[in-house]
Automatic annotation (TrEMBL), chain A:
It comes from Sporosarcina quadrami. The lineage of its organism: Bacteria, Bacillati, Bacillota, Bacilli, Bacillales. This is tRNA (Adenosine(37)-N6)-threonylcarbamoyltransferase complex dimerization subunit type 1 TsaB. The gene is tsaB. Residues 32-225 form the Gcp-like domain. PANTHER family: TRNA N6-ADENOSINE THREONYLCARBAMOYLTRANSFERASE, TRNA THREONYLCARBAMOYLADENOSINE BIOSYNTHESIS PROTEIN TSAB. Pfam families: TsaD.
UniProtKB/TrEMBL annotation, chain B:
This is tRNA N6-adenosine threonylcarbamoyltransferase. One of its GO terms (molecular function) is tRNA N(6)-L-threonylcarbamoyladenine synthase activity. Belongs to the KAE1 / TsaD family. It is an enzyme of class 2 (transferase). It catalyses: L-threonylcarbamoyladenylate + adenosine(37) in tRNA = N(6)-L-threonylcarbamoyladenosine(37) in tRNA + AMP + H(+). PANTHER family: TRNA N6-ADENOSINE THREONYLCARBAMOYLTRANSFERASE, TRNA N6-ADENOSINE THREONYLCARBAMOYLTRANSFERASE, MITOCHONDRIAL. Residues 27-310 form the Gcp-like domain. Its EC number is 2.3.1.234. HAMAP family: TsaD. Its cofactor is Fe(2+). The keyword Cytoplasm applies. It comes from Sporosarcina quadrami. Keywords: Acyltransferase, Cytoplasm, Iron, Metal-binding, Transferase, tRNA processing. Substrate binds at residues 137-141, 170, 183, 187, 276.
Length: 236, 340
C-alpha cells in the first residue's frame, strides 16, 4: 500500500510517500514560499526520487485545515484532484492533529497551536490512548487568552506543539506555569508521514467532489452578512 | 494524416468555476460553467474569500462533467490550459492547482493562458479569426483595445486609465439602487428609456485610444445629488440611458478610429460588457457603415467560461508553449505575445 501525504495548511510544506509502513521519501520546509510555487513541484520531485508513477499510489492523505485559508485550499485542491482523477481513496486529517501526532510518546494532553493573527489561534487538544490520538477538545478558532483559561482548568501538564507556539510562549508560560511544556524544535513542523499515519486510522472521504477544507471559521463577509440578517430580523 | 487536438480548459479567475474541452481550437465538445452569482448577490459584489471557497467545492465536479459530456478520458486529451492571470489570486490558485494535479496525474502538458487572450479567442469558437484584427475587450476588470497581427501576437493600443467599463456600470447601478450585477440592469433601463440625461464624454487626447470612466461615474453621482438637494427625484431610466450613451459613444468611436488606422480585416468584441445590447447594436451599425467585418460571441461566451481558455490554449499548444508544476497565480499578469 503506497500513500501520498500532503500538508500545505500553514507556512510549512510537507510531502511524503509511505510504502507499507516505510517512509520512502519526505520533504519538509518552513520557508515562507507560496505553496502554489512549491507544492506540486515538490510532489513531482518526490515521485521522481522514489521512481514511482502517479497511478502507482493507492491512497492520498491531506491536511484539511484549519490554517491559512489559501494554504489549506491549495493542498485540498491538489489532493482531491489527484484522488478523483486517479480514482484513489482520499483521507482528510486535521492539520492540528497532524502536529499533535509528532508527540507520539508523550503521556498527557497535547495542544497543537497555529497562529491566526490578532492574538487568535487555531488549536485543539489531543491525547494518545493505546496508540490512537484522540481529540479531547474540538479543533477551533480561539482568542489565545480564552484558550489558556480553558486549559488552566485542566490542571495537568500540557505539551504545546507547533512552530507558532513561540509567538505565544510568554503568555503560555505566564498563565500555565509548571504545567506548560513546550515541544522542542524538531517536533514543531507538521510531517506528511505523521499525516499518513493518522490517515491510516481514519475513515476515507465518501464523496471526493464534496471534500472541502475545515476552515473552522466562516468568512468575514459571511459573518457580517449573517449579523446584518439578524439585526434586520430583530428590527422587524 | 491529421490528428485531432483536444484541449481541456479550466477557468477560475473570478466567480465562475468552469471547465471545457475544445477540439482543434474551435469546436466546442463540452462547456461547463458553475456560477456563484446567487451566493455573491448577498454581498453586492464578488467577495474573493467566498469565491475561492466556492471554487474548491466545484472544481473537480466541473472537470468531470466536461469529460463526461465530451465522452472522453484524460488519455484522449493533448494538454490542459488554465487561466494563469489576471484575476483574484485566491480564485486563480484553485484552477491552477487543480490543472497542475490533473496534468501531473495524467502525464499531460500544462499551458498558462492570459484571461484576456481567452476572451479574444472566444471568437475563434464562432468563426475563424482573420489577421490583422482589432479586439475590444470590455468587462468588469478590463477595457482594452488590442491589435493582433497574427495568432499569439498582442499589442495593447489603448486601455482604461481608471475604472473598467464594467466597474463603472456596477458603480452607477449602485447609485441608482439597482441589484447586483448592475450592468445588465442599466442596459435594460437604458433600452426602455425615451430620454437621456446629457453626461460628458471622456475623449482624452485627440490621438489617444485610452479610456476613462471615473469622471462619468462622478458626473452621475453629482447629477443625482444636485437634483435631490433641490428636493427632486431622478428618473433612473433617463440616467441609465445617458450614462450608457456616453460609454457606448466613446467605445464605438475609438474602436472605429483604431480599426481604420490599423487597417484591420476583422474587429471583434469580447468580455462581459460585450454582452450589453446597446453596445452590440452601436458597434454593429458603425462597422456595417465602415464595411469592416465585426463579430461578437453569443452572450454565454462573452462572460467568463473555460471554452475560451481552451481555444486560446490550442495555438499555444501547437506553438510549443508550456508551463510547469511551479505555475503560480498571477493577479496582475500582462498580456504579452507568445509567438515572438
Ligand atoms: Zn473575464
Amino acid at each position: 500500500m503506497i500513500w501520498l501525504g500532503i500538508d500545505t495548511a500553514n507556512t510549512p510544506l510537507s510531502v511524503a510517500i509511505v510504502k507499507d509502513g516505510t517512509v520512502l521519501a519526505e520533504v519538509n520546509s518552513s520557508m515562507a514560499v507560496n505553496h502554489s510555487l512549491r507544492a506540486m513541484s515538490t510532489i513531482e520531485e518526490l515521485f521522481a526520487t522514489v521512481q514511482l508513477q502517479p497511478k502507482e499510489i493507492d491512497a492520498i492523505a491531506v491536511s484539511e485545515g484549519p490554517g491559512s485559508y489559501t494554504g489549506v485550499r491549495i493542498g485540498v485542491t491538489i489532493a482531491k484532484t489527484l484522488a478523483w482523477t486517479l480514482k484513489k481513496p482520499l483521507v482528510g486529517v486535521s492539520s492540528l492533529k497532524t502536529l499533535a501526532a509528532n508527540a507520539f510518546y508523550f503521556d498527557g494532553a497535547i495542544c497543537p497551536i497555529v497562529d491566526a493573527r490578532r492574538n487568535n489561534v487555531y488549536a485543539g487538544l489531543y491525547e494518545y490512548e493505546d496508540g490512537h490520538l484522540n481529540a479531547i477538545k474540538e479543533d477551533g478558532h480561539f482568542a489565545i487568552e480564552d484558550l489558556l483559561d480553558s486549559l488552566k482548568e485542566y490542571e495537568r501538564p500540557v505539551l504545546y506543539i507547533g512552530k507558532d507556539v513561540a509567538m505565544h510562549e510568554v503568555a503560555i508560560r505566564e498563565k500555565m506555569g509548571e504545567n506548560a511544556i513546550i515541544a522542542p524544535f524538531p517536533l514543531q513542523l507538521p510531517r506528511a508521514s505523521s499525516l499518513i499515519h493518522m490517515a491510516q486510522q481514519s475513515e476515507r472521504e465518501e464523496n471526493i467532489h464534496a471534500f472541502t477544507p475545515e476552515y473552522r471559521r466562516i468568512a468575514e463577509a459571511e459573518a457580517n452578512w449573517l449579523m446584518q440578517q439578524r439585526k434586520d430580523k430583530a428590527s422587524e | 494524416m491529421t490528428t485531432d487536438i483536444y484541449i481541456l480548459g479550466i477557468e477560475t479567475s473570478c466567480d465562475e468555476t468552469a471547465a471545457s474541452i475544445i477540439k482543434n481550437g474551435h469546436e466546442i465538445v463540452s462547456n461547463i460553467v458553475a456560477s456563484q452569482i446567487e451566493s455573491q448577490k448577498r454581498f453586492g459584489g464578488v467577495v474573493p474569500e467566498i469565491a475561492s471557497r466556492h471554487h474548491v467545492e466545484q472544481i473537480t465536479l466541473v472537470i468531470e462533467e466536461a469529460l463526461h459530456v465530451a465522452g472522453l478520458e484524460p488519455a484522449d486529451l493533448n494538454a490542459v490550459a488554465v487561466t494563469e492571470g489576471p484575476g483574484l489570486v485566491g480564485a486563480l490558485l484553485i484552477g491552477i492547482n487543480a490543472a497542475k494535479a490533473f496534468a501531473f496525474a495524467n502525464g499531460l502538458p500544462i499551458i498558462g493562458v492570459h484571461h484576456i487572450a481567452g476572451h479574444i479567442y472566444a471568437n475563434q469558437l464562432m468563426q475563424q479569426m482573420e489577421f490583422p484584427l482589432l479586439a475590444l475587450i470590455v468587462s468588469g476588470g478590463h477595457t482594452e483595445l488590442v491589435y493582433m497581427k497574427d495568432h499569439g501576437s498582442f499589442e495593447l493600443i489603448g486601455e482604461t486609465r481608471d475604472d473598467a467599463a464594467g466597474e463603472a456600470y456596477d458603480k452607477v447601478a449602485r447609485v441608482l439602487g439597482l441589484p447586483y450585477p448592475g450592468g445588465p440592469q442599466i442596459d435594460k433601463l437604458a433600452l426602455a428609456s425615451d430620454d437621456a440625461v446629457d453626461f460628458p464624454r471622456a475623449w482624452l487626447e485627440p490621438d489617444s485610444y485610452d479610456f476613462s470612466f471615473s469622471g462619468l461615474k462622478s458626473a452621475v453621482i453629482n447629477y443625482k445629488h444636485n437634483i435631490e438637494q433641490k428636493g427632486g427625484t431622478i428618473v433612473p431610466e433617463h440616467v441609465a440611458a445617458g450614462f450608457q450613451k456616453s460609454v457606448i459613444e466613446v467605445l464605438t468611436a475609438k474602436t472605429v478610429r483604431a480599426a481604420k488606422q490599423y487597417d484591420v480585416k476583422q474587429v471583434i468584441a469580447a468580455g462581459g460588457v460585450a454582452a450589453n445590447k446597446g453596445l452590440r447594436a452601436s458597434l454593429d451599425a458603425a462597422f456595417e457603415q465602415e464595411n469592416i467585418p465585426f463579430y461578437v460571441p453569443p452572450i454565454s461566451f462573452c462572460t467568463d467560461n473555460a471554452a475560451m481558455i481552451a481555444a486560446a490554449g490550442t495555438p499555444m499548444y501547437m506553438a510549443g508553449v508550456r508551463g510547469d508544476m511551479s505555475m503560480n497565480g498571477r493577479p496582475g499578469m500582462q498580456l504579452t505575445s507568445w509567438n515572438e
